[in-house]
Each structure stands twice: as structure tokens, then as C-alpha cells.
Amino acid sequence: MRVLALGLVISALLGATAFADDSVADGEKVFKKCAACHAVGEGAKNKVGPELNNLFGRVAGSHPDFNYSKAMVEAGAGGLVWTSETLHQYLVKPKDFVKGNKMSFPGLKEQEDIDNLVAYLSTFSTAPTADPAATPAQ
């Protein structure tokens, strides 16, 4: 009986890993909407938007050599740090989350797309994705 229970636990864990892998793969597809303005991965450079390596834990408006809007710099100075939670809020409607920012992307309508994109971006970050001390700018 214990062997069966252990087998079920291992199967569940392997299934969770596959789901996570699927989320990342689906997030890579969603990122194609972002790729005109942002880059990730080895050799990524700032484009119209900042490169997004090590985004998690980064203070908003603080990536070097990128000319952010005054609104984004002020959001960072006010305590906005990019975490899974803050990105989920931002990606729904960036112009509403940080009023006055210059990102022209209207946002993602599907929660699953946001979840998958955040999962994908987390693979390019060494910091944890969550920060309970982070407070979103309004």
C-alpha cells in the first residue's frame, strides 16, 4: 500500500513539473507579443523597452541605460518592485497600473496568458518571483 501511495505522490509531482514546463512553453509563445520591444536571454539588450533578464526583484524604472518615463521612475521610487504579483497586475492594463508610463502595449486579456508569461519570464531571473513587501503603485 505504501508503494502505491509513493507512486501516486511521484506521479503527482511529475505532473506538476510537466504543467510548469507547459506554462513556460506557452509563456514563450505569449512573449512573442512583447519581443518587438523587449528582449530576454543571453545577449539581451534594451530595445524600445528594457531587456527583461532578472526582472524579478528589480525596482521599477531602474534598469541601467534605459530612458524610463518619469511615471515609471516615480513608481520605483515609491516602492514598486517587479514580482509575480505586481507583474500580474501590470500586465492586465499597464497604462492604468502605472499612470503616465510610456509602454504602448494595451495589456493581456487572458489570465492564463499572464500566468504563462510570468512563468516564462521567471526562467530568466535569479531572484524569487514573489516579494510580500512589494506594494503596487497606483
Describe the secondary structure blueprint for this structure.
Layout: H1 2-31, H2 70-77, H3 84-92, H4 94-97, H5 111-122
Helix pairs in contact: 1-5, 3-5
Essential attributes:
disordered C terminus, 138 residues, Cytochrome Bc1 Complex, Chain D, domain 2, mainly alpha
Overall description:
This protein is mostly helical and 138 residues long. Helices cover 46% and strands 0% of the residues. It has helices spanning 2-31, 70-77, 84-92, 94-97, 111-122. α3 crosses α5 (111-122). The longest helix has 30 residues, at 2-31.
Outline of this structure?
With 138 residues, the chain is mainly alpha-helical.
The CATH C-level class name:
Mainly Alpha
Distance between the termini: 54 Å
Tell the overall outline.
Answer: globular
* Strand percent estimate: under 5%
CATH superfamily: Cytochrome c-like domain
Helix share bin: 40-55%
